Amino acid sequence: MKISYVIPVYHNEGSIGLSRDAIAALFQGPLSAYDYEIIFINDGSRDGSYVEMQHVAESDPHVRLINFTRNFGQIAAIIAGYQHATGDAVINMSADLQDPVELTVDMVGKWQSGSDIVIGHRSDRDDSMAANLFSKLAYGALRMSNPNIPEGGFDFVLMSRKALGLFLSYRGRNRFFQGDILWAGLPTMFLPYARKKRIIGKSQYNFSKKLKLFYDFLLDGSYLPIRLMSLSGILCALLGAIYAAVIIIERVFGKAPFQGWAPIMVVLLLVGGALMFMLSIVGEYLWRILDEVKAKPLYVISEGAD
User: Fold this and answer.
1) Range of the domain at 230
2) Per the structure, how many domains does the chain have?
3) What is the pTM of this model?
4) Are 47 and 11 in contact (CB under 8 A)?
5) pLDDT tens-digit series, residues 254-287
6) Cβ neighbours of residue 147 closer than 8 Å, sequence gap 6 or more
7) Mean of the pLDDT values across residues 16-44?
8) Do both 76 and 201 map to the same domain?
């Protein structure tokens, strides 16, 4: 059986050879019964990453390279690697040596025990206080609509061929990687680990990219924003109608502040409430259009009838 490692590369000069060496060591030891391949995807790096990738590939027939014309983003690099992977199981991991390569031994074991998805999730991380705070706040919000996402999030994951086929069948450019993996409900195992401090290079995953990831989940993987809009629209319409009735009653009893105030307020409240309600309906239609565009299957069968 064959294991494919998919490793996106963006400004990771100095760590590519070390990543290859760490993986190769596993297949000379605890994973010696398996064949393997390592797919490095250069996502438009402007440092010496691609040159290092070429040197590694020249010395190791297990290494394959994909070189993008420019930076298309991590999710594009991951999908490109997945599409070219030939293994019976595929492992996505970072090139910065922060994910413990040795954990893949346990991941392969869990996969062989029947798990289609094995997720290495960050139970602890040696990052700055600001990064840790943002992570806790962001994933706390995400877990409100998808409690299956681990508290620290994940991108270090093994997928079987069945899980990989489902993942690649989904469509869309602005996808939420974690949500798409968990969506199918296949047998999943979680393995916690402490994310290591980066010792080579500087992280290119800045605040704007983290914010983009957060928005991708809210807009692509959750009904929460639309549902909040719908509820606020209905609530505003109801409150507006109630207050309009109060104003009409006050007008009948002559308690309006001045002539013409009551009809103006009634019109404003009723029209405003109607607009909020109609916008929420439009939002619901837009979400359904997005759901159709993503083309996820209607169901996933675990065991089928004859």
Assistant:
1) 224-294
2) 2
3) 0.75
4) yes
5) 666 666 666 777 777 777 777 877 887 787 777 7
6) none
7) 94
8) yes
